[in-house]
Amino acid sequence: MTNPAPADVAADAPIRAAVVDVGSNSVRLVVYDGPARIPDVFANEKTLCGLGRDLARTGRLAPDGVTRAKAALTRFAAMTAALGIDRVDVVATAAVREAEDGPAFVETVAGATGWSARVLSGEEEARLAALGVAFGIPDACGWVVDMGGASVEVAALDRGHVGARVSLPVGPLTLGDLPVSEGQREAYLRGLLDAALARTNGEHEMAYLVGGSARAIARVDMLRRGYPLPVLHGYEITADDFERTRAMIRKTPPAQLRAATGIGAGRVALLREASELLGALLRRLDVRRSVVSSFGLREGTVFDRMPPAVREADPLLVAARTVERRHARFPGRAAALDQFVEPLLLGADGDRRRWVRAACHLHDVHWRVHPDYRHEVAFDEAMRATLCGVTHVGRVYIALVLSHRYKKRPGAQHGELAAALLPPAQRTEAAALGRAMRLWTALGSPDGPTVPTLVVGQGGAGVTLRLPAPDPRWRGEVVENRLRALARVLGTQARVELAPTAS
Fold first, then answer.
1. I need a surface site. Which of 56, 97, 176, 284 has the fewest CB within 10 A?
2. pTM
3. CA dihedral of residues 24, 29, 32, 38 (deg, nearest 10)
4. What DSSP character marks residue 330?
5. Nearest to 233 by CA among 161, 158, 132, 155
6. pLDDT tens-digit series, residues 225-240
7. Please, are residues 83 and 29 in contact by the beta-carbon 8 Å criterion?
8. In the chain, helix, strand, coil percent, each to 5?
9. Is-contact 170 178, C-beta < 8 A?
């Protein structure tokens, strides 16, 4: 087994951290626990308080919202104390920042909980939201648009570096208070953005959407399109699709949208204003595609504290390594498996090689599941796991590899999902990789300097299992059957040979 690099050790080290986000619409506690680079959500609770509901009209926090927020924060303080969390980052955003009674609210929170809330400036809020996107999408390059209840933060992000940023003093909660038509509101928003756009180093064709309202709009888009994978993180919306979905939101009663999507009542009530506001911003930014990020301000707060070596680790591989250590029969052999299947990947790009390495870490974590269902469980867990640093296509690719690792062909439902999102060549490649993994496990999951290797001939020249020695562990009916299954996927012939001995 190869010793892990120091950076990997740091990225995999367990942490426990908590962030409390006092927003204009909701107050939320998230407790993170797990590997430093991509900790799991240990606890997640929110209360829709509507602190900023009256802000545009009165300049003050909504009184009932203050009462609800104080109760929620008192509960969160008791929960974090019971969990033994000494350090809790409490951040307050637009409503508390803008309200004339915001300082009094902060004092009230301190008296009730002992917490000193950090009231973020608009630019700092935008920076942390952008870092949250980098937390989950390391190669993100484009505009980050974080839509809260009473403000929208926009930042330029380039692979972890945050550039120009601006906070706009309008959100779904306050948009309707502007005494102008929709067209006039759009002109107003364009004016707010222009100064920030002038300071950037260039324009982007991508936007990364953060916040509950953006995720709700994405759910409606999934419904309208009949999209087969109900995973919001990494979901892409084209500019044309966004406008079609905005039209659907305008003409569909909120109760009907809620019944069809499961969006909460408070969120669906603001969906029309949110889609109008986000649509105006995306048109001004002139982006062609938008990607939903499930990570934002809270994750950005955690990411901001990470050492550089941890930040730069690949979150997909950190997550896969963690699952392997917890559940695999022989943890630590992913590198050997990756080397065994490498001949099948000639011409594969960097992303696909990352997906394969992740699948190698996950290839044997479902051994406790009943054999009849391992392929289904492996597929479904890969589809629904909290994976970062991977597109929807990559997620399906990994799931299909793992399904074929346990069974010759996936179930009908899984095959249809893969066909909807993966091109035929990648489906074939995933099937071949899964069957090569089945072969490798039949060989005893060999690791070391002298192990069997695959040789894949070009142009239909066959696939060969080359054995370094006539070891009985590497011969037999099961090995030969699995080698032939791999050859059938590749449309070629299979054979076994002894490697030539050194003279």
1. 176
2. 0.91
3. -20
4. S
5. 132
6. 999 998 999 999 999 9
7. no
8. 50, 15, 30
9. yes
